[in-house]
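P.,

For your records, the input lines for the assembly:
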Amino acid sequence: MSTSAPDTPLIAIVGNPNSGKTTLFNLLTGLKQKVANYPGVTVEKKIGECYSQHGKKLRLIDLPGAYSLNARSPDEAVLRDVLLGRRPETPRPDRVVCVIDSANLERNLYMVSQVLELGLPTILVLNMIDVAAQREWHIDAKRLSEELGVPVVQTNAVTGAGLIELKLTLSREDLAAPQWENAALPEGVRAALEHSRDELRQTGAIHTRSSLLEPLYLLSDHDPTHYGIADSQMARIHELRGRMEADFPGWEDALVAERYRRIEELCAKVLKRPDQEIETITTKLDRILLHPVLGFVNLLLVLGLLFFLIFKVAEGPMGWIETGFGALGSWVEGLMSPGDFRDLIVNGVVPGVGGVVIFLPQILILFFFIGIMEDTGYMSRLAFIMDWAMSKVGLNGKSFLPFLSSYACAIPGVMAARTIDSPKDRLITILIAPLASCSARLPVYSLLIGVLFPAGRVSAWVQAGIMLGLYALGTFGAFFFAWVFNKCVMKGSASPMILEMPAYKMPAIRSILLHVWQRARMFLVRAGTIILGISILIWAASTYPKTQGDTSAQQMEHSFAGRAGKFIEPAIAPLGYDWKIGIGLIGSFAAREVFNSTMGVVYAVESEDDDNLAPLRDKLAGERRPGGGLVYTPLVCISLLVFYVFAMQCVSTVAIVRRETGSWKWALFQLGYMTGTAYLLSLLIFQIGSALGF
Ligand code: BGO
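Structure tokens returned:
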């Protein structure tokens, strides 16, 4: 596919976030799209091809969503720069398709009014007409078109209604510049902007042919990322901005108010609403699910159900996998003659990989549940519910979405923090994201909860309750540290948030299952590569050097791994851990779930042949210290669980944090503060618990 033919008209799709731009772009271009990054920034560039109703080839570019052309984030700066023709690698679009959410007409028209001022031929798409119709809103599209001087098309991007009309409009050769008048600028402000434009032209910061809009946006944005503007020119921009503010205090607010005044006038002419707002299913549900108290109670119930299912429904399949790996071990043991290679398979590969793969059913349930929450629209409500808590620690709900994805894995969570406008909020979100209990912690939690409260002895609801407690502890820890960082390290006020709530819908089970399958494959590939490799290493380190005449247990103690565990034992003994747990801790700094595989290998290597195939949980529960006492007492299990809630044990996350923050400083700070907290809390729990006689 060629997306760069210069003679094919380039059409930009712009609009507020969640107005349906991407759905419309996908509908128009199908699979004919290319995704890349804009040079110099981590903002996605999506270009595609389509044909107008008359068969004319068109190039479409899906620009980042924004509420205004006054850029506050790198995404919004890209939008502004492309529309102004300031990015050399992306030609200025020939036309603009402005997509708006009809059910939020007034707010969406704000950016439309700015786009119209650019003077590019524009088509207005009133999307989500179904939602507006449900509310019994009547929008007079003909009148709107006359007022703005641009064609207006009504669509439902989900069903494709209105698509043919849009393609017909895209075919029109006669699209003229819009007739919308520029927002009236007070004479003094206009003169000052003209003066600034002349100055900025001389420094080369703006085009020689540029209109007043370019200095207007360069001087009025809040957190600018100016592509291609040298530091010296930036200094000049800051100076001019300061002078504007001094000469005309509040000029920007006045401009915003003027725009809204004109939009209000326009809406009065084109929009008819019922006297009383119509209640949709979404508004009825939201009254409960977004309620400050009921919403929170509901959230706890939903999560309680999730963990109950994780323990109850997964129990059967986990038993089958456990039996399967046990049978595989016995089969290999019977098949091969004794020797190191047989040991490697029976005591290294099988228990190492098996110790992690057994948790596949729980991981599947976790991702299926997350998929349902996302696809029904409930996940966006969580950000709203948590906005209150987030604002208490100086962040806003926008940080909660990256934090929420970190419950699956911190890596996409840290990357999702790119959407946060304020650099301070973004950094704090990255620093706290790995405190959300990710899916790699699930196997460790589950194993230790199994040792603490074996299934059968307590109900799955109790196990679910403990799991919920661990997730809550991580979340509470994240909020606590966000508050600390906000207060002590990086001061600043919380920035306001605008959150879109999509209407609830039935989940698309097929696409959720596809997503779950992709996750399962990733989990299995990880078990078959990284975990397999580490299991082999741990087996070798636990088996060599060999000493004549030793029992398996003595052999383990004298092995490289045993010596490493013994070496760190003085540091971890105050937490209640023995040197074998120490080996597990060392292994799991690569990845958390390695704890299970390491313990699987350590106990398999150490045990005498007849009991080395027992389930790992039973081995841990029966493990005794040289003095005869149990190793995994309830206190030790709790101390270990808390350690895993807080410790930063994932090399991949450290690498991503380094990349996203651009320095080792923050990655190492995160490693230090999380692991330090884990150590301190586990120490306190064990010491205080022991002193109290537990
Ligand atoms: C979810 N009508 C309706 N009812 N919905 C629409 C229409 C329309 O005309 N057009 C788009 N949507 P994007 P941006 C979703 O993803 O294209 C929906 O940011 C959900 N997802 O399906 O992404 C569209 O590119 C779970 O909804 O917008 C999408 O502009 C529950 O509007 C949303 C409910 O569309 C945003 C909706 C997991």
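Two observations worth noting. DSSP finds 29 helices and nine strands in the chain. Residues 15, 17-23, 65, 127-128, 130-131, 156-158, 374-377, 502-503, 505 surround BGO (CB under 6 Å).

Regards
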